[in-house]
From TrEMBL:
Subunit structure: Homodimer.
One Pfam family this sequence matches: HD_3
Catalytic activity: a 2'-deoxyribonucleoside 5'-phosphate + H2O = a 2'-deoxyribonucleoside + phosphate
Designated name of the protein: 5'-deoxynucleotidase
Domain of life: Bacteria
Cofactor: Mn(2+); Co(2+)
Keywords: Hydrolase, Metal-binding
Gene3D superfamilies: Hypothetical protein af1432 (1.10.3210.10)
Protein EC: 3.1.3.89
Ranges of residues in domain HD/PDEase: 36-150
Natural source organism: Yinghuangia aomiensis
């Protein structure tokens, strides 16, 4: 019989590993010249927020979508953030295999729950998974718009190509609405009531 403390240690180890996402940079932005791109954790956090909002708009389960978004890039602690341009040259690891390895010593309920979320995201068959994928794309598009504002003109191609991949009506609508906004738009109502 396994000592429950071993599962606690394995789960705590996984939580510590997830801290590496706060230090890991999103490498695709280096291709367009961004010197200090967002971290994987920053991307995942806003993806979860966007996913929750899209789920509300699309009639999906916001909590489930947020969960899928939270763990969609958690494997990057072990395989790194490989930009789309690089993936064609690599035989990418299956994110489900990486997740299984990450959680091998974790509490069984934690391992099963996260594995199910990653599997659902990877399959992309449920409405929640489809919304989560659109949240990932929309976050990338919005980040690209912010980098454009900062003077990284090469981000435009990423904005355009990511916008073209949006599938749900709500993501398309929010992507279109985002294009005319500045990153400080939200504060205008306070500055100019």
């Amino acid at each position: 019989m396994t000592d429950p403390r071993d599962n606690d240690r394995g789960t705590a180890s996984f939580l510590r590993e997830m801290g590496a996402l706060k230090r890991g940079k999103r490498t695709g932005w280096w291709i367009v010249g961004v010197k200090d791109p967002e971290t994987i954790a920053e991307h995942s956090w806003r993806t979860a927020v966007i996913g929750s909002v899209l789920a509300m708009m699309e009639g999906a389960d916001p909590g489930r979508v947020a969960l899928l978004c939270t763990f969609h890039d958690s494997q990057e602690t072990r395989v790194g953030d490989i930009p789309w341009v690089g993936r064609r040259y690599l035989k990418a690891a299956d994110n489900r295999e990486v997740t299984a390895d990450q959680l091998a010593d974790a509490h069984p309920a934690v391992a099963a729950g996260i594995a199910a979320a990653v599997d659902e995201y990877e399959r992309g068959e449920t409405l929640e998974a489809q919304v989560a994928h659109d949240a990932d794309r929309l976050e990338c598009m919005i980040q690209g718009l912010e980098y454009l504002e900062q003077g990284y003109a090469n981000a435009q191609e990423w904005v355009d190509s990511t916008r073209a991949k949006l599938k749900t009506a709500s993501a398309v609508a929010l992507g279109d609405a985002s294009q005319g906004l500045s990153s400080t738009e939200w504060q205008r109502t306070f500055l100019h009531p």
